[in-house]
Every structure is written in C-alpha cells, then in structure tokens.
Amino acid sequence: MASNAPPPHTLDLALSGPSLHVARSSAQILLDLLRTRFHCEAQILGVDLTSNPGLRPHVAPEKRFEHILPSGVRVSVWKGDLANFSAEAVVNAANSQLHHAGGLALALAEAGGPQIQKESDDYVRTSGNVRTGEAVALGAGKLQCKAVIHAVGPQLSFRPTSYEVSVGTVQLERTIRSVLEIVEEKKFNTVAIPAISSGIFNFPLAECADVIVNTVMKFYGSILSHRFKPKEVLLVNIDDPTVQEMALACVRLMSPVPPSYSQVAGVAPQTRRAAKGAAPPPQVQLGAVCVILRKGRLEEEKTDVIVNTIGTDRKLSTGQVSRELLRKAGNKMQQEIYGAPYSGCVIITKGFKLSCKEVYHTCCPYKQQHGSDQALFTSVRDCLWNAVSSKHSSIAFPAIGTGNLGFKDTEVAQLMLNAVCDFTKSYPPPLNVHFVIFPSDVDRFKAFEKELRSLQTNVSQMSPPHNFSQGAQNFTPALPPKQASAASHGDRPEESPVVSPEPRLLLQSSSEENVTEARAWVTSLLHNKDNKVWIYNNFTQHLGDKQLQDLSNMEVYGVEVEELLEKGCSGFMVSGNRAEDIALTALTLEQKIQEAQMEYEDEEREELRRLTRRSQSPKGQTRENRREEVRGERSRVSRGDSSIKHLVEQLRSFGMETVKVERVKNPALERLFKLQKAQMPSHSSQTLLQLVSAQFCDTVGHIGFRPECAPPDDPSLGEGLYFAADVASALDTWTRLSDQFLYLFVAEVLKGKSGPGARGLVLGLGPGLDPGLDPGPGLGLAPETRYDSVESSKVTVVFSHLQAVPRFLLTCQRPGLKWD
User: Given this model, what pLDDT does residue 258 score?
Assistant: First the structure.
C-alpha cells in the first residue's frame, strides 16, 4: 500500500555554534528557500524555535478550538504570533515597570515600534508602576490592533509550592478580570490573550490555562448580564505546548465528557454477520482517543479525514492507495496538491468526491534511509494534530511504509501505535483513529491486531482514572508494547522512537541532485570560513521598490553589502567579521531576490497565456485550452535516446557522466514557437545548447529561455540569449557556474536572418513578423540592418525568447564529484 514513486533522498546536517544561531533566527526563510529553489522539504530538528524571544519565526494563525458560551461570547484557541495577530485588542504579559525587555513584551515592542515603550514609560512616570493583578490599555504603535492591554500577572518562584500557586491563582484571576473589564469599558469586539505568567513568571502551565479559561467562562457566564460582551475572546500563543494546554483546558472545562464510540462519526455500519454477534473490530480507548482496527478499502471510508502516502513529486498516479483515491476523488485533487503547502509533514487537500472532508497526504522515506523510523512516527503524529486542530472527530490511516518502502508489518504497527500513544499524552480532544487494512493483506492485519490486543491488555490492567470524565490531569495513557515491557523490568521507558536531541537540519527530496545542491548551498552559508558570501543572480535587476526599501532598512552592524555588476552578471557580495551576521544578511538577500524572481515568472506566465490565446483562432479556442496552465513538465528518458546520445558521448569525453536525461514539454511554449517558426524568413531550426544554474531549471521549463537564467562569462555579442553549438563551446561560454552538477539544456533555436554581433547590442525581432508577438520594441541598429540573431564561431545569440524552445535537460556529474 506504499507509493511507487522514486524513493526520497535524505541528508542530515549538524547544527552548532553560528550555524545553529542562523537556523533558529531565520528558520522560515531557510526552509522556504530550500523548498522553492531546490525542491527539498526540510525540517530543523532538536531546536526550539520559540525559546529566543527576539527570534520569533513567522507563524500563520491556526485555530485549534472554538466554543460559544451560553452568553453568546465565542472562545477560541489559536496558535499564532500576537505581534502579528488580527484583534481589536492584544494583551501583553507585562512586568510592573512596563519595561518590555524580553519574551512577548519585547516582540510586541519591536513590532509596534518605539511608541510602545515610550507610552509605557510615560504612563509609569505619571501614574506609577502597574500592580500585580492590574492592567492598563495603551497605544498599539504599528501593530494591527487598536490597543495593547498591558497586564501584570503573578510572578512565582522557580519551583513554586502549592501555597504559592494557590495565592497566584487568585492574583491571575484578578489579572484576567482586569483585562476583561478594560474590554468592556473600551467596547472591544475581539481581544487576544496569551498565557499570562506561564513563562518566566513560573506559573505552572496546566494550572495557568485552567485559571484563564475558567475566569473567562465566569466573567461571561450569565446570559442575563447587561454588561457589554465582546464577540470573541481569543487565547493566542506561539508555542505548541502552550496552545495544546489551552485547548485541553477548554475541552476539560467546556466539553468535559468525551463522546462514546457510537456517537463519534467514522464508524462503518455493521455487516449482517456483525449484527448476528460476530466479534467487534479490535479497538482500545486511550483517554479521549479511540483506536479501531478494521479491514476495508481506504477510498470507501466515511471518516472526516483519510490519510494517503505520496512521493516527493506529489503525483497521485503512483502507488496503489494514491491511484485508488485519485480515481474516486477526481483529477481536481491532483491539481490542488501541486500548489498546496506543507503543514508539518502533511499536505492537506479537500476530499472532493470521496466521503471524507479532507485528505492528508504524507511522504515517508524508504526503510533503509537514515531517519526513516522517525519520519514515519512524525508523519502519523502530525496527521493526528492536524485533525484535532481542525475539529475533526475521526481519521483513517493505511499501513504507512509497508510494501515498496521496505518496512515490516510489525515495525509499522508498532511505530504507528507508538505515535498515537505519544499523541494521547497531551490530552487531545476526542478522536476516533481508524487503521484500515486492505482485506487481502491478512498477515498485515494480524500484525496490527497483535499489537493492538497487547495495547488493550496493558490498558485493562491499569486502574481507570476515577474522575476522567472531569478531565483528570494525572491520567497517564497506556505505554506502547515495547515501553510497557521496559517499564515492567524497572527500566525507564522511551518517550518516543529514535528521537535525537542533537540540533540538525534534515533535507529530503525525490532527487539526489537536489539534496546535493541544497547541501552545498546551506554549507556555504552556515559554515562559511572566508567571511564573505557571493550571491550571483541576475534577477536582482527585477527587485521592486518595496524589496529595495526592505534591503535599505536591513543594516546589520559589522556587515557590508556590495552590489556586483561584472560583464552582464549581477549580484551581491556580503562580508563582515562574524559568520552568523553574514549568513543572516545573505539569507535575507536571497529571500528578496527569490521574491523578485517569482513575481517575474508569474508576470511572464500571464503574458504567455495572453499570447497563446491571441495565437489561436476563435474556432480553435476550446474551453480547455483557454484556461491552460503555462507549466513545463519533465519526464525521464534513456541516455541512449538517439536525440541526445551524441551529447552524452561528448560530455563523457570531458570526464562528465550524464546521471539523468529529461524530456521537456510545455504546450504553450511549443505553440508560440511553431507560430514564430512559420513567420521567420528561414523556417529551419537548429539544435543548440545552454548551461544554466540548478535554481533556474524550473524557470526555463515554465516560461522558456531568459537572459537572466544563463548570463555568459562575457556578453561580447550583445544582450540576448546565448546558445552554444557543442559541449566544448558551452563549457567555454559558461565557466562561472558553481553548482555541484552541470545542467545542460538542449534547445531548438530559430536563427532566422543572422549577422555579426557587438558588445552592448540589443536587437528586436526581424522585419516582417507580427508585431503583436513582439515582446518589446527593437533597439540598437536601424530597421534595415536588423537581424533575428547574431553569431560568432560556435556561439549564437537570439533576441526573443519565442525563438527557442527547450527539448531536453541533461544533468551531468562534474569530474571528481562523489555521491555521499
């Protein structure tokens, strides 16, 4: 039941010292660049991205819980950053002096600008310190809210006694009431409240969550109260443990009794045999989570969520489970999955024609690869948390990792059940977890049944918590089989399988070349020893006003950014005294350039769509091709293909082995190229070559050849698109490429009317062509001397991207490069 897609390639990079600081500081930028530039899904493991208050990663707001009180006030729990959160009032966990030097207070002060601290200082100077249990509303500066409510909660000792907590409880209740009284006075419709006092003020997290939720419930508990009521109270925190504890407090206090097995959606109707008294499907209750094992077909499930396994190429046409889900759901699921972002280890799409609300697509590496056990464990846990975060009540899993991925049935059963047990330790809301095994997989079902029966035995031997229906906080879920065995011998049970605390960056991609390129790029940034980083990318010329303004504001002490422009190649050189400051600055530059490149590609795709529509007659414009996506597709072909066999031999003569050959297809580019060919003075074309950097392979496939993607070492023939007649000429024309591999495009090129070139020459299209297809006005020579191309020796330059179309892409291993 595993995917038949190519196995993902993984690589671990250790993080320590400056590299660890950079990874923590710019985590989101680093992960986004690895995904967009190198098609590598990456995770930063063993690193708390929220522990440094001044280095808060970008967190997209995510709702985890919602409940409407009898008074009509909505209470919700969110994972989000209060420094960038939409609410009329945002609450700050402040100290009495309103000195915002750390934690949330510092984040709000930095995001809101100097006005936040100035108003706070002015208030303390005129009114004195804010006492514990009190709150004050001041200006919001540049924040999205109308006001910041600075609330001072109780500060406890490092390991508070029960007496301290009881006294602090009264003080924290008073603090929350003070906040809500300000909301009433100012008539704020929404207020966002963090877990006040739970951080450096040492209030125990679970008790803190209970106090906050209980106080909100009591304050707005009366339906008959005439006081002003906001529309919503949002409990917002940036770190998962606090978010989870807030959600659990809401579940305990607002909906304490978990629904019974028969009341929860996702249970298939009984068969006649079951109705006659056959044994029910094996199941076990772990707190509020019910685990059920059944035989069936995943595509027929009626649970809220169905889990699917995919390859890193995201194609649903490979793998038995994926194919069946695609067949029933329809092709819209495939279209959606290409553009959907990751949520942890999961890509989420709608269910379409399936009987579920959502499908969670997760990728698992081969058993033989490093970290495969942890990857499977994490993917299951991420699916479970995504399900409860979206308020789903049931989820169905296949046996992830079995079949082609090489995991044994017993291993998968243990790992997946371990993940469920680990999940229940955080007291999640009620959830039915179904493991659905294909009916003919008898041995696989028996492996899961054995593990589940063992787990069921361990649960039955435990004393059930007498007050579970009220949400007992001391309840410990049953240990998985192996952990229970260890505990029975007096050993300390493992928390979870193969978890390594060492900080590291984990890279994963369907292509080993992608992983290799990504590693080289990350190493050059995070382990730089020369105190200099060079960034060569001609898309710097497309930086917009906003991006340039952001760069001008990005001044780091001790770091110098020098703009480079040499023989048509542009970029930046970043230098300084501290490696981490250089890397942080370079990452921000790379991010801005990537944004400019993506904006350019989007604009060019739209232009290609427009030209494609104009190139067709009204009769030829079907509904399908009017909405056609401008997108290049690459498919593997044999190195012995007659079209490229001679190039493979040429490359071998230079000591380079061709590791991959791909055919490039782009219907929009092909249609425009044919039209251009029909209008050229000479209808013949020629096969030529172009070397590009790894990061531009997709760009060429999607929008065609562009000067920004392959600037030559010396643009001596003019400012256009350079192509070489053979491998030797290509290696002479592009020598500055620093990638680990060489990426050689084979293009069909229209030379048309050709003439001599000159430095700085910029030519338009040749005479006689449809001006409607001209991408820009001709410059340089007079009309009577215009040419469609220029050439010298074995190098040809054309001046319109419509005169060339990519046919093949050869990925070549450089001499001496060894695969790790």
Answer: 40
